[in-house]
Amino acid sequence: MSEKFAIGDEILEILKGSLSIRAGEFAALDAGVGDPFRVLVATIISQNTNERNTYLALDRLERVIGVDPPRLLSTGVEAIEKVIAVSGLQGQKARAIHEAARLVIERYNGDMKKLLELGEEKVRVELSSIRGIGDKTIDVLLAFSGFPVLPVDTHVKRVSRRLGLTNSSSYNGIKRDLHNVFRKEVRLLAHLLLIKLGREICKARAPLCSRCPLLSKCPSASLEQKTNVPTREGGE
Ligand code: SF4
Which of 12, 50, 69, 104 makes a 20 to 30 Å CA pair with 218? Predict the structure, then answer.
């Protein structure tokens, strides 16, 4: 076990023993590892909404139009927008999905795996040219496609700051620090388990520290116990 990753290894062992990841909890996960275009669409739909609405919108998109580049490109943006409306921000999301379908068809013969084969930097350059696809969405796609990336969502940000794994407030600063905590092979698992912890225990307004498996490791919990001040939020 490398010293550098000892804390990350320990945190993951504790979380693996306390939390489980079930079907129906992560749309990108259920969208299908091995089908990167579906993962990308699921992640775009999941922006600024909860998992329940993401599943509803994705299911509807699958039934009404189909989640594959040719069908999405031949269908107008407005139709996509209507179908995914339950997820909110549907105009922006529909345009991003439509543009992603166009990019994959026009430059990669309809196969997103061909883009992924060109490597992380090329994926970033290509997808970041589409409005509505940012760092987090690209990182989720990369992580679920086998790249050693730890995407930072609102839960990961809050929990990792409370745990003292990062002091940064910026997306890339937090990601850089977490990459120094969690070894490459476990970054996707770390992403999922930190989100689970954030959703169920380390909640934004009222963290349930007494039920937290990381209680003894967490500087924010001891601060809370000693001084009875609210747990620091970390600038969300
Ligand atoms: S001990 Fe409290 S603040 Fe620390 S990670 Fe657990 S729930 Fe969050």
Answer: 50
